[in-house]
Design goal:
single chain; 430 residues; alpha/beta; Aspartate Aminotransferase, domain 1; 2 domains; 7-stranded mixed beta sheet; binds ligand KE4
Length: 430
């Protein structure tokens, strides 16, 4: 039983479990891995999120990434309200779709052509199908612990909720599908070489989160992404950067800009939709010309590029593009947070390992460095659960899973960071 402060959440959770599996519409939200019931959210604004019992939290989930400007940004809301008045969806082309595609191309020139879809899952599923259609090959190489959404072939040794729920792959995926997905280890060049040797000429693409963020945040070793670029080019396979999390977060041009790598295809989600159901995939015109109606690789969607979601996406990117100092600011504030936690938790002994890049970070409850999926498995999940509960009881909202990330927004003030650290200091002594 949780304390009286969650009365309404408990009631709503009981009812929602009657009609929705696990009471949630996405598994990780159920907070089972941290042995708590979820809180139900009433509203959010800036860096704060408010549950239905009136509890206020500093939010470091940020809707799993989209809210880089903070929740309910006034300019974004203004543009969305304006769009809503004209109708919600037409199932026909609108100007906003090419405006958003143009903005994406400006930020990531690799994306000469872009298709807007409704979720990161749709974006990666479509990019995989395109890579197979373009190369006329079947095999897709992914990495253990990387998560690319829940399309059948990608739910093999995936991260995020799959890892959180400790299932190696998903039920309901026939071996026939899974056999076309081969799995290497992130940051392990030998494991990739071995697969390219074993399946010479049969690999359509490598799909990678350029910064893994679904087994906690793990940075690519120096040269690892360059190696992937080289080995795919040498083997006429496509390199797909899944930038659903890193896109528009690490930099205006995402991980491509940050690391100076040019993949063949990029998938985007989260920030690109500003919190609305909008994602995208794209690449060189020559590859994208294989997509229907130009080519025979089919992909479609009733609500793809709908006017309300594109309004939110355009407004979000406009704020980011017109205020490039946002990236410096959120990087500095996240560094302040990371350094503060380091000082609190690791004074006497090393109790946590922190990985950070820009405004994306993870606090791993392990005394060793975390550079691979294997390292992540040394984490003490009960300690993480205790950390989660202590923070939530004290008004800090973090991911209910060790295998997710901490997201900082431009709405997080220095004061928010200092308040967060003073609360963690209370846990630190435990
Ligand atoms: P969606 O289908 O959830 O929009 O995107 C799938 C996806 C694809 N690629 C990457 C790198 C992703 O991180 C995701 C989704 N991220 C998780 C959080 N780690 C979504 C949260 C959830 O599943 O509830």
């Amino acid at each position: 039983m949780q304390s009286g402060k969650y009365k309404k959440s408990e009631k709503y959770f009981e009812i929602s479990q009657k009609y929705i599996p696990g009471g949630v519409n996405s598994p990780v939200r159920a907070a089972r891995a941290v042995h708590r019931d979820p809180v139900f959210i009433k509203s959010a604004s800036g860096s704060k999120i408010f549950d239905v019992d009136g509890n206020e939290y500093i939010d470091y989930v940020c809707s799993w990434g989209p809210a880089i400007l903070g929740h309910a940004h006034p300019y974004v809301l203004k543009k969305v309200k304006k769009a809503i008045k004209k109708g919600l969806s037409f199932g026909a082309p609108t100007k906003k779709e090419y405006i958003l595609a143009e903005m994406i191309n400006e930020a990531m020139p690799v994306m000469e052509q872009v298709r807007l879809v409704n979720s990161g899952t749709e974006a990666t599923m479509s990019a995989i199908r395109l890579a197979r259609g373009y190369t006329n090959r079947d095999l897709i190489l992914k990495f253990t612990g990387c998560y690319h959404g829940h399309s059948d072939g990608l739910l093999v040794k995936a991260g995020s909720g799959v890892l959180t729920e400790a299932i190696s792959s998903s039920g309901g995926v026939p071996d026939d599908y899974a056999k076309n997905t081969i799995v290497a280890e992130f940051n392990d060049i030998d494991s990739v070489n071995a697969l390219f040797e074993k399946y010479h000429g049969k690999i359509a693409a490598v799909i990678v989160e350029p910064v893994a963020a679904n087994m906690g945040v793990i940075l690519p070793d120096k040269g690892f992404l360059e190696f992937l670029r080289e080995i795919t080019r040498k083997n006429s396979a496509l390199l797909i950067f899944d930038e659903v999390i890193t896109g528009f977060r690490l930099a205006k041009g995402g991980a491509c800009e940050y690391f100076g790598i040019e993949p063949d295809l990029i998938t985007l989600g989260k920030i690109v939709g500003g919190g609305m159901p909008l994602a995208a995939y794209g690449g060189k015109k020559e590859i994208m010309s294989y997509i229907s109606p130009l080519g025979d690789v089919y992909q479609a969607g009733t609500l793809s590029g709908n006017p309300v979601a594109t309004a939110a996406g355009i407004a979000t990117l406009e704020v980011l593009f017109e205020n490039p100092d946002i990236y410096k600011r959120i990087d500095e504030n996240t560094k302040l947070l990371a350094d503060g936690i380091e000082n609190i938790m690791n004074t006497k002994e090393k109790r946590v390992h922190i990985n950070r890049i820009g405004s994306l970070m993870s606090v791993f409850f392990t005394s060793q460095d975390v550079k691979s999926y294997k390292d992540v498995l040394t984490c003490d999940l009960d300690k993480y659960a205790g950390y989660y509960s202590f923070l939530r009881e004290n008004g800090i909202y973090i991911a209910p899973s060790q295998f997710e990330a901490v997201f900082v927004s431009d709405a997080h003030s220095i004061e928010d960071i200092k308040n967060t650290l003073s609360i963690i200091a209370g846990f630190g002594g435990k």
